[in-house]
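Quick question, first post here. What does this chain look like in 3D?
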Amino acid sequence: MAPVGEAAALVLVAVLWGGTGPFLRTGAAGLEEVRRQGRLQQLLAEICFLGLNYKYMVPFLLNQGGSLLFYLTLASADLSLAVPLCNSLALIVTLVTGRLLGEDIGGKRAAAGMLLTVLGVTLCIAGS
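> Answer (accepted):
Ran it through. Tokens below.
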């Protein structure tokens, strides 16, 4: 895979990881109300609740698709670039997606953190 293709794949991984986080939180809403007697019955009830909930399963499967793409991209990507790029951009995408969904992301400090993260990723890419 060409370096541009690797970078595009890693950005897609970050979008899949970061963009699905807020939707996973939304889809898992109500899980704390699932109550059963015994640990095994509780575990099975929670698995059924999440597994049968499309609002949880669609983002979960997209997130896992991002993990698969990350695994496949690591075969040819520079590890010292791939991990920081994906994780930092996923954080930014999570904050932006959460904000679009109406979550409180922390105001000016969060914006400053995103700016510093973008600066750090830019330095990583420029140094590679």
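Helices lie at 3-27, 39-51, 54-73, 79-100, 107-127.
The radius of gyration is 17 Å.
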